[in-house]
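Researcher: Structure prediction, please.
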Amino acid sequence: MAAPTERRRIFLMRHGSVTYFDAAGKPVLPETVPLNEDGRAQASAAGQLFATQGVRFDRVIVSGLPRTVETARRVLAETGQQVELEVWPELVEIQGGKLSAIPDESLHEAFTGAFDGVVAEHKRFLGGESVAELMDRVFPALERLRADPSWDTVLLVLHGGVNRAILSYALTGQRLFLGNLSQAPGCINALDVGAAPNDWVVRFSNQAPTTPLHQHTRSTTMEQLLAQYLKFRPLSQQNK
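Model: Predicted structure follows.
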């Protein structure tokens, strides 16, 4: 009888909630935005769940953006672990372009198109980076992590778009981007990975410790952000 397959565990989190637009709908620089009150609670709740289950991390990897760093630190604080954060900048979120340059008639597609079903690789997020460009940097980083035999359990604290790319590959074994895989702020995914290239097992996805039944919304993150932005720039307003 063959020996059981030994797989390692990747806990993949999205950072906690942040405020990308102020009360008037004016954009806040996404590279610097910290967690808001809800985001801090989400990160701490995730850490408490890991602590309750006795999970220990060999490595903790973040993209380096403040919202991922703060989330990871709050998780570790709850688990009582002293693990140095590793910054992998190739795992930053898919990069948008200049919102003011997007024509009124293209706003909805620019906000939501990159997260709609099986997304074509040429699709661009908010007029910026394409899905292909996102995958071109995320997938090699994922393979580099898999090639390192030194860890058994790793925590990745990343972003909604990046997480979708990783989950899409794990689920299909292909270079696909499934945009409608929801990633709530502060959510946890669990993926087991073996030695063979397509040896992935997705144990669970989008587990949100503070709202486990996702009962508070039926809209997507990007639909919510578009609604916030339109307070600042109504669709009837002409670009200047």
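Model: The beta strands are 8-14, 59-62, 85-87, 153-158, 188-193, 200-207.
Researcher: Thanks, that helps.
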